[in-house]
Write a structure and sequence with these properties.
alpha+beta; 16 helices; 19% strand; five-stranded antiparallel beta sheet; elongated; 698 residues; three-stranded antiparallel beta sheet; 45% helix
Length: 698
């Protein structure tokens, strides 16, 4: 071997040792740097013409473990998701107050029953009546405050989603730009580990926001894809956008650099964005819907008891609520019997009209029964009342007026959709609503739907995660019955039939059930329908859509007439069993107050809302179930957050054990490279000395 070859061989050893020492020193310097991945030097024998000519450095690489990287990203996504859910669910639960404290929301319901029980002992007390009304007002106002706060929390979540999307776009852009730096370094066999470390940290942060698929590029760097494979970063960065409206579920679209410029909805199953979208579209609206269901049924129980009661003396006029129906449709479907009585100031009966809905007859003062139909009901009732009173029906509202004295009603056995006659029409409601809060319409398949033919309702079908499937625009059919309307909604082409079915239950509530494989959900994009002139839309009457259902907790209030005059609160009951000539209403009768005090123990039908399905139970029991469900959801989210964080910590620790710097190992490598460097240097020195000897000889 020539001296030149010896020098080249020794020099290659020096270079390799220098590269190794540089890598080791960089590792040791970054021993406490977060996200730093240790480097190692790849070297191999240099062979020229079949002969060994020293060593060459083939590259400097980061020590990584693909499985542990994937585990860390997955754990980071889950941790980010449940951290967001737990945080906001805790905020939502706190709105209802401390269960052990006096300000606990559900405890206010017991105050209502207690104040009415006290009123029953002294029905003539205006103060006790006022206290009863105040307890109802406090309950409803607190419910409205909580619902408003829930809606504000939803808007905060919306803002957070937008901020996270902006950050995700920034991360994708940086990851994509680093690909170019890494590729350039790879082309000239330079050390790209610094850029790769930064890129890895950016991917880790991105995974906490949105779950992604990560793979390596052949030229260096990474490719980032969504769950379904949409390119987010690699050869150009995609731009994520948040699509939302107040009435529909939100979803994320990706506009790729190589695409058509139109955003494509992507599937998100993890990360903070998944948790925030779940909160925004399901959990918070679910709590709001359940709160509205609870408040409306509690108000319904109070109204049911009060409609079965009356004041002494009786009120001259009883004016109902807007049922959203025409009178024939509203009367149709009633069963059982009820009695409308006109009484004078002394409580004596002046006219009695017995209505038998099952038989379809009316009788006056115990006389012969005369037939009526839903279409003739108003005229026949006016005829039966004669000169003693009158009935009117305007804009969905029934009113009864006594010519002299007052009107009192015995609900009897009358029933439609779980409500008695006066209760169904709201003739003596304490709690009134600015809209519709009870969606048990009482309509059947053969009932007239009443909506204007040709009016349109646009429904959005979406997957469970909010990713849209399609929008369908349904026109109100020319067919007049609810069966025709439901068929139009369920049409396979112009309706939702390919993805689920609307159905009308026995109480007249309209419900949608998604079918396989999507188990779609529905939301209302636009509703231009109306039942009659100025009547409610389909979504308002049947409670379709998030906006309609989540707003009802803010619509309930104590009727102004009772606030102005608490003596209008009915605490007595009509007694039709007394002997002729005896008053049917007597001062001091507190039976109506006792019924109001026991209203919380009457079994009611609660529709599916939030985390609770359709159930039949008392209002007091539902309050306990509702309060418990909020606590359980919050605790479950916190448990999942703790579990996800524990998994993430373990994954990070295991990854760090592979990728992190071990000082003992690095010092051993440093000693090895130092000795190799010294050996190569001595070889060069020996070759120099030999060259000098040969030169001197010549």
């Amino acid at each position: 071997m020539s001296l030149t070859a010896v020098l080249k061989t020794a020099n290659s050893g020096l270079v390799a040792s220098q590269v190794g020492l540089r890598a080791v020193s960089d590792n040791i310097a970054n021993v406490n740097t977060a996200g730093y991945v240790r480097k190692t030097v790849d070297q191999q024998q240099l062979v020229v013409a079949g002969q060994g000519m020293g060593v060459e450095v083939s590259g400097v690489k980061r020590v990584t473990d693909q499985y542990l990287q994937l585990a860390t990203l997955t754990a980071g996504s889950e941790s980010g998701r449940w951290d967001a859910v737990a945080q906001y669910m805790d905020n939502a639960q706190s709105l209802f107050g401390d269960p052990s404290g006096e300000a606990f929301f559900f405890g206010r319901l017991d105050e209502i029953w207690a104040t009415f029980a006290a009123t029953a002992n002294d029905p003539s007390s205006s103060l006790l009546r006022s206290q009863s009304l105040s307890s109802i007002e406090d309950f409803l106002n607190e419910g409205a405050r909580i619902n408003t706060a829930l809606n504000e929390l939803g808007r905060t979540v919306d803002t957070q989603i937008s901020a996270n999307i902006d950050r995700a776009n920034d991360l994708l852009d940086q990851i994509n730009k680093l690909n170019a730096d890494i590729s350039r370094a790879r082309m000239v066999d330079a050390d790209a580990s610094g850029s790769e470390n930064i890129q890895s940290q950016l991917v880790d942060e991105l995974a906490t926001l949105i779950n992604v698929q990560v793979s390596s590029r052949s030229t260096g760097g990474l490719m980032i894809r969504s769950t379904e494979g949409v390119m987010l970063a690699g050869d150009g960065a995609a731009v994520l956008s948040y699509s939302r409206t107040d009435s529909t579920k939100g979803y994320i679209t990706a506009t790729t650099s190589a695409g058509s410029g139109v955003g494509k909805p992507i599937t998100i199953t993890g990360g903070a964005l998944r948790g925030l979208l779940d909160l925004r579209d399901d959990k918070l609206p679910g709590i709001s819907d359940q709160l509205g269901e609870f408040l409306s049924r509690a108000a319904d129980s109070i109204n049911a008891a009060h409609n079965a009661a009356t004041t002494v003396p009786a009120q001259t006029t009883l004016t109902g609520r807007n049922t959203g129906l025409d009178l024939p449709t509203a009367v149709e479907g009633f069963t059982g019997a009820t009695t409308v009585a006109i009484v004078d100031a002394a409580g004596l009966l002046t006219r009695r009209v017995d209505i038998d809905f099952t038989a379809g007859t009316m009788s006056v003062d115990g006389g012969p029964a005369a037939a009526f139909t839903p279409a003739s009901f108003l005229a026949d009732l006016n005829g039966a009342l004669g000169a003693t009173g009158s009935a009117s029906f305007t804009n969905g509202t029934l009113s009864l007026t006594a010519a002299t004295g007052g009107v009192a009603i015995d609900e009897g056995t009358s029933n439609k959709a779980g409500r008695a006659f006066s209760h169904f029409f709201g003739l003596n409601d304490i709690v009134r609503s600015g809209g519709f809060t009870n969606y048990d319409t009482g309509l059947s398949g053969t009932s007239a739907h009443g909506f204007t033919p040709g009016d349109q309702l646009t429904i959005r079908l979406a997957q469970g995660d909010g990713k849209p499937i399609r929008d369908v625009t349904v026109s109100v059919p020319a067919g007049a019955t609810m069966n025709d309307l439901v068929a139009a909604l369920n049409h396979n082409t112009s309706g939702v039939g390919l993805y689920g079915q609307y159905s009308l239950d026995s109480s007249g509530a309209l419900k949608f059930t998604g079918s396989e494989p999507f188990y779609a959900t529905t939301s209302i994009v636009q509703d231009n329908t109306a039942r009659g002139v100025g009547g409610p839309s389909i979504s308002a009457l049947f409670g379709l859509g998030t906006v309609e259902r989540s707003g009802r907790a803010n619509r309930l209030e104590v009727a102004a007439a009772f606030i102005t005059d608490p003596m209008k609160v009915g605490l007595a009951k009509l007694d039709l069993s007394v002997a002729a000539g005896q008053p049917v209403l007597t001062p001091g009768d507190g039976r109506g107050a006792l019924a109001l005090a026991a209203a919380g123990d009457v079994v009611s039908r609660f529709g599916a809302a939030g985390s609770l399905g359709q159930v039949n139970m008392t209002v007091s029991r539902y309050a306990a179930e509702f309060g418990g469900s909020i606590g359980r959801e919050s605790a479950a989210a916190d448990t999942r957050r703790s579990s996800a964080q524990a998994v993430k910590t373990e994954a990070v620790n295991r990854r760090q054990s592979v990728e992190g710097v071990n000082l003992d190992e690095e010092l051993v490598r440093m000693t090895t490279y130092q000795q190799a460097f010294n050996a190569s240097a001595r070889m060069i020195q020996a070759a120099k000395e030999l060259f000098d000897v040969l030169t001197n000889i010549v």
